[in-house]
Amino acid sequence: MSGAKNRMRNKKMRDQPGNVTYSSPGWRNGGETSAGRAGEAQHVKGHCLPHQGGGWVRGHQSGGSVYPQELPKYITSSYFARARAAEVKAMLKAVNKRTGSCHTFGALPKHMRRRAMSHDTKRLPTRLREGAQRMLEKSLLTGKKKEESKAKSRKARRRHGNLLLEFNRRQRKNMWLETHIWHAKRFHMLKKWGYCLGDRPTFKCYRACYRAMSSHCLLQDLSYYCCVELQGPEEELLSALSRLTSKDAGPTFAAVQCLSGRRQGSVVLYGSDQYPAQPLGPVLFLWRPRSESSTDRQLWIWGHPTLKQDLLSELRAVCQCSEAVVPVPVTVPVPEPTPAGAAEAAAMPPKGPAHKQASSRKRKRAEQDSDAQPAKKIFGDGTRSPTCPVTWKSALTGIVINDLTMEIVRYRLIGPLSHSVLTEALCPATDCDVEAKKRQSCFWWPEHSKQEQNMALHREQTDVFQLLKGVYSSTEIPGGSVLGLTVDDPRLTLPRMRCKAEPDLQQAIGVDEEKRRALTLQGVPERCCQSALWDRNVRDNATDNKITEKELNRMRSELLVPGSCLKPTPPQGRVPVLLVHQPGKQLGQEMPSWGAGWDLLLPKGWGMPFWVPLVYRGVRVAGLQMSVKHSQHKGAPHFPHDFPDCTAGARFQDEQQAELMNKFTRRPPGKRTNYIKHGCLAPFRCPWQQLVEEWAEIVKETGEGSDTQTGVETDSVPPRRFSVLRSRKVMRQLSVWCKPSSSKGQRLQRTTQRAPQPISLCPATAVSLWASHGHSLVWARFSLLAKGRPELHAMVCVPTDEDLRLLSREPRCMGPQEPLHVDHFRKRVKIARKAKKKKGGKAKEASVEQVVGSDGVAEKQDSTSDPSQRPTEQPSSVPALTQTQEVVSTPSRTSDGDTDATPAVPKASVAPSDQDPSASAPGPATEERLVLGLWPEPLPSVTSHCSRVTLGWVTQGDFSLAAGCGEALGLVSLTGLLHALLRQPPEQRGLLLLRNPSSLQYRFAKVTIEA
Amino acid sequence: MVRFKSRYLLCEVCVEDRSSLLLLEERAIYHAVKNAVARSHGDYGAALLILSYGVKYVNAHTGIILIRCRKSHYRNLWSALPFISCLENRGQKVQCSISCLHVGGTIRTCQKFLVKYSTQQLHRMLPHCRNEAERDEVRRAVLSCSLEKERDVEEEEDEVEDDEWEDE
Questions:
Q1: CA-only gyration radius of chain A, Å
Q2: How far is it, in rounded angstroms, from Cα A750 to Cα A756?
Q3: Looking at per-residue confidence, does A776 or A742 come out higher?
Q4: Which run of H or of E encompasses B15?
Q5: 20 to 30 Å CA-CA from A926: which of A87, A105, A394, A819?
Q6: B145 CA to chain A: closest CA distance, Å?
Q7: At A902, is the secondary structure helix, strand, or coil?
Q8: Which residues of A touch B61 (CB under 8 A)?
Q9: Which chain B residue has its CA at the smallest distance from A130's CA?
Q10: Which has the closest alpha carbon to A684: A719, A718, A658, A708?
Q11: Which residues of chain B neighbour A17 with C-beta distances below 8 Å?
Q12: CB–CB of A81 and B137 under 8 A?
């Protein structure tokens, strides 16, 4: 029994009477005198010194056989009376005293207990009050320290200023968006990428969100996306930026439509002059329309926060902006450090301050000392240090880079009715009164509206905006259109009840038909893309002069008719906004432009005033989870999940692996999936590099690439890093090749193919592709033919001829099954665990592990030879493939003994002398990492591990509500894909197998490459 | 909360010679009762008894014992008690009979009953006293059947013990 348990028991048994016998061990000390006195003494002793061998231990005691004293010779009635009395006393005590719980009211029957009894002793019956009072005092004494730590009362803490201070403190590590509090009340929040973001609502709405996306409108706060502003002469900008992109991967920054400012473009950036290696990630960009006054152009680049550091440093490199402009904090008496040089700026995270934030932070710090000034709510990025540069200048090119993180709020509305939500929630800015115009005003709109050309532009934009009301669906608008606008404060027109925005088509019929047709065909005219949001001063003015909620409510309460509209609009209630159309699904034939919508850009500080009115128009709000699903339904890769070749993507993979591993180890070992038995080598992280290298090896060994000179070339070149294929031309070619040449497929092909005669798939073209894109992965979509739901990291495999024949025999068949693998590591894990348990000294442990290590090598060798033997045992119909499997498994067999990170490297490249030292040293280390059910680090050949050859892995998989079947998106090796396609009969081309990591069942899937 | 419910039998060992009562021992009672149940109810009855059977309290001076058994089978035990005619301890056989005073669901109720019963017995003893000395003794004993005086002492003990635990 443990000490604490003993103590509890002793306390409980303290008052219980013990046995009174002549043989009990407690009797020994005091039994010299007469029996009567002895009996009493025993009772007293019974409660003074509760001993372990008291009357509550069942059965006889060990000391029972010893009889230290004689029995009394005679007995009197007085003796008996005394014995009785003593017993009564003992029993009385036992009955009256509380047991177990040390609370006084434990002695009270349940129906007499009252609320807050421990706090207020007067609630107890009088007889128990005294003891309870003592207990209370005692507990107060011990709890005193805790009481002191609470500096302020709850009321004080909840006071507005103090609450804001607390909020500002809590945002220091992870920034909050402006809608944070709204989200935090309704969403599961995640701390990601330095922000606090909503992942998914706490209520069930997965399907409802899908419905909103496909038939109404879904709202997301994308303000965490980082905006970088570039200013400078157009040619300089274009020449600098062209180094980051390639025309091969689609339209670049210089696309005509985008350059004029009419369209928003998207592009994948690469390291300067590095294409196709070193991709940075996808970004959105938006040019400011040309204005007559200045020759400088303005460009916004929107990127994911994980991308921002790389993006900024690359941009600074290509634009030669080495000069960091250090912002001077306005009201800071504290001596500032000297302006950071370029090198220093590159080293430290180039976050930038806004002057206002800096001062508010300072004020906050000052307040902690003096407690005099109220806190100010931080808009924008409050976490960066005020000395961090946000602006970089280049004297050479005249380009200025500006970091506008958190300066602009970005809301995304997805769904066909998002335009009607916008037209209902926003109303174009009303004109100011005449006398107000004459006066000088500190607000931007009265000044802005003084110029007639501005007003003309505004009227034009308003007309276009009104046209949107009659549009049936957001998808009718050309993708990427931009509309600048100035709107009234939407809080003024907030409906009293939440309603659902519907397009008003009846009214619009016949009116402005031609204008609307022009809008849907040509998009928004170039003039209307201009907005005051581009102007920093206007933005700041709008932010600073926002009417507070309190002021607005005061104005409402002063209305003559309660609940009527506030007229006229106060002069500060105009906001410049930018509406950017978001194209939906652009590639592929199914569901064209699904998931289209509008992005709403606002100046900072206006987040909540726009958010609530939008929500009141019946939109559904979603978080990060839904944005993943959105891109999944669109078939587009989602950043950073599906960009394993980018640094951000690699980082994400690390995090995901740790997370999945953590989840795996949280389960009890008996309940974990044994991935070794399922033949899954890497359930938590896909070894892309190894896959690509192995496929290169396979092609070389089978002699398909060796007849040309390319085979020799790849031999001499050191193993390149894998990359994801983004070349439009090759993608288009592949997408045609993946289609089966059945009647239906051909018809589709003919309708979609612009090129008169596409290059047909033959070994020669494949070889040339292998030469140029050997280390590439291809983004592909897999839709399951029958049932099944693909999961994350499901394997994409090549079906054998047998499988294809099976499928043509019975089209609804389940698909082949993987034979169960043998877990050879099981024994080693057990031995290691036992050794860990047993180990006493360090020397012993080391010796055990050495033994285990030597055992492990032997076992491992036969484990790796197993998969290579299995295909040969089976009557395989593809002799070439079995041959490659054996070939590939040979190098891995030889390199098994060491912990080389690349076991798939051909045998010749690994010198035997290198292996020996490394084999002995990291042996114990690998033993430590051995987890039951997971392959230890040097993975064997990933392609030939299972009975079907692996092509790649799935990065997003789920049952697709849009398609009505299981759908997966993933990356496959280009070499492997071509290799597989070449061997398939033309009518069954593009059929692959998918297998989940925790299942043995292969399922047939059709591969589609959308380009 | 769910628990195994038990029955506690508060019994008195009656002997002819009071002094032989002092031989009373927990172990002797335990075996005697078990044997008696085995004799009258067979192996099955004995086996049923063994579940949570125990002698909880023995007072050799007054001959009070407390036996615990499962609630569902306490009748077996109860009916076997009259068949105990002697207790054996230290090699001596003592003729005795066991009479059941009270059957309770908790030790606490048995204790409460015992308090009542013992005080009643003490009161009954008073008129049977032969001389004055005896009478005084018994009177004193009756008077001492209360807790009033002891309370203060106990509380001090409590605090001392609590402090010790805190130190640990």
A1: 38
A2: 9
A3: A776
A4: strand B6-15
A5: A819
A6: 5
A7: coil
A8: 20, 35, 39, 79-80, 83-84, 86-87
A9: B155
A10: A658
A11: 57
A12: yes
Answer whether B22 sits within 8 Å of A82, measured CB to CB.
no
- In 3D space, the residue among A579, A572, A577, A570 whose CA is nearest the CA of residue A541 turns out to be A572
Tokens at A387, concatenated:
């000395």
Q: Are B110 and A54 in contact (CB under 8 A)?
A: no
Backbone phi and psi for residue A391, each to the nearest 5 degrees, phi listed first: -125, 135
- The Cβ-side half-sphere exposure at A746, using a 13 Å CA radius, reads 8
ipTM, two decimals: 0.72
Query: Nearest CA to A806 among A816, A791, A793?
Result: A816
**How far off is chain B from A116, nearest CA to CA, in Å?**
23
Residue A201 has phi, psi (to 5 degrees) of -65, 155
Distance CA A955, CA A645 (A): 13
For residue range A965-988, list pLDDT tens digits in order: 899 999 999 888 888 888 888 888
- How many residues does the structure list for chain A? 1011
Of A287-301, A479-493, A868-882, B149-163, the range with the lowest mean pLDDT is: A868-882
* Contacts with A252 (C-beta within 8 Å, 6 or more apart), sequence order: A241, A242, A245, A246, A267
A80 at B interface, C-beta within 8 A: yes
Helix crossing, A624-634 with A206-215: angle to 10°?
Answer: 50
Q: Which of A76, A77, A97 to mutate to test the interface with B (most CBs of B within 10 A)?
A: A77
Q: Where are the alpha helices (DSSP H) in A439-490?
A: 444-448, 452-467
The secondary element (H helix, E strand) that includes residue A660 is: helix A647-666
pLDDT at A717 over 70: no
Angle at A313 between CA A309 and CA A317, to 5 degrees: 170
Beta bridge partners of A175: A195
Token reading at A230: 């570039």
Helix axes A355-370, A160-170, angle to 10 degrees: 120
Distances (CA, A) of B6 to A714, B52, B77, B111: 84, 8, 12, 15
- A84 touches B at CB < 8 Å: yes
Q: Which residues of A touch B25 (CB under 8 A)?
A: 21-23, 60, 64
Reported confidence tier of residue A872, pLDDT bands at 50, 70, 90: very low
Cβ-in-10-Å burial (0-12, 13-18, 19+) of A413 comes to buried
**H, E, C per residue of A815-843:** CCECCCCCCCHHHHHHHHHHHHHHCCCHH
Q: Which residue has the higher pLDDT, A228 or A749?
A: A228
- Structure tokens of B71? 């609630």
Are the beta carbons of B134 and A77 separated by less than 8 Å?
yes
Place of tokens 């976490």: A383
| Token pair of A694 as six digits | 């192995």
Instruction: Read off the DSSP letter of residue A492.
Output: G
Longest pairwise C-alpha distance within chain A? 129
Amino acid identity, position B2: V
Amino acid making up residue A83: A
CB within 8 Å of A583: residues ≥ 6 apart: A479, A480, A593, A596
Cβ–Cβ under 8 Å, residues A711 and A698 = no
Of the candidates B61, B107, B133, the beta carbon closest to that of A83 is on B61
Angle, nearest 10°, between helix axes A234-241 and A308-319? 120
Shortest CB distance from A87 goes to which of B118, B137, B138?
Answer: B118
Nearest to B53 by CA among B71, B73, B70: B70
Query: Are A78 and B137 a contacting pair at CB < 8 A?
Result: yes
Please list every residue in chain B whose beta carbon sits closer than 8 Å to the beta carbon of residue A45: none
pLDDT score of A889: 38
CA A479, CA A788: separation in Å to the nearest integer?
Answer: 34
Q: Who has greater pLDDT, A793 or A922?
A: A793
Q: Which of B114, B137, B150 sits opposite A82 (nearest CB)?
A: B137
Q: Is A77 on the interface with B (CB under 8 A)?
A: yes
Residues with Cβ within 8 Å of A456's Cβ and at least 6 positions away in sequence, in order, are none
